[in-house]
Write the structure tokens for this entry.
Amino acid sequence: TVDSNASPDQQELLETAERVVIACAPVQLDQDMSECQSLCNAKMCCFEGKDDPYNCEDDETKMCGVFAGCKALMEGEPVDGEDLEED
């Protein structure tokens, strides 16, 4: 038989992914990025360049797909509509 319900592990991963997406949404990052940073800190290797020795995107134990929302931290989204890059 096929169980249509997600296993507890799958449910936990789904809930984590939802928390990441909410915490790392641009509007949330504008207000407070600390929760996003806390959730994503150990997963930033998922977003390093392919040739970067610290890239772990292909390491299944890192579950990079669950933490896809963390990419917002790497994209340099403007805060309060201002670009923070210095000249």
